[in-house]
Prior knowledge:
The protein is built from 4 helices and 11 strands; from the N terminus they run E-H-H-E-E-E-E-E-E-E-H-E-E-H-E. It is α+β, with helices and mostly antiparallel strands.
Amino acid sequence: MKKTVLSVLLLGTCSFANAQEIKTVARDLADEIGPVDLQSGVTQRQAGVIAQFYCRRHIAGCGPVAPAVERSSEWEVTPFTGIEGAPGKDKIVVSKRSGNASWGQGPALDVLALIHSAGAAPKPINDKAGKLGDPAGPRVKVQFVVSPDGAAADVRFRQSSRDPNCDRRAGRVVEGWRFPPRAQPIELVATLGCGG
Length: 196
């Protein structure tokens, strides 16, 4: 039986904000999805991860998503949007056999192609500036864009530490990073620790 392995999630292995914790968005998605056996199909949990990624990327005002509901060869996932968190009329559809996702009039997302395109994340040239804390402390996950001039911009929190001071410090650390100049912008994800 042939298996397509996407990756295994390994959160919690490091706690400092350094280049080893910075990933491309595609690599982060692969880690969150974990191994996929396309013979058995995408699991309910994996469909939920794919749908949440699709929602964040393609649906305005995206919030959480409902658990995936099995429909023959697909999973259907309801996104919640807007300030009031209203359920969307259109469902995000995730194929069990390919992991591909679609939604209403939105674009189709070829998940396996995206994941297989995942290259190494660039490292900040000033990564020693701004380490936050120890492994036992709260953790925050931040998504950001590296612009062609190497600056970190559009910093958004993917997962709060539940400590506002930690979140603020993590945002400042990421905003202070500088990367080598590049031809095109790239989206990255960093997990930072904020222990005492």
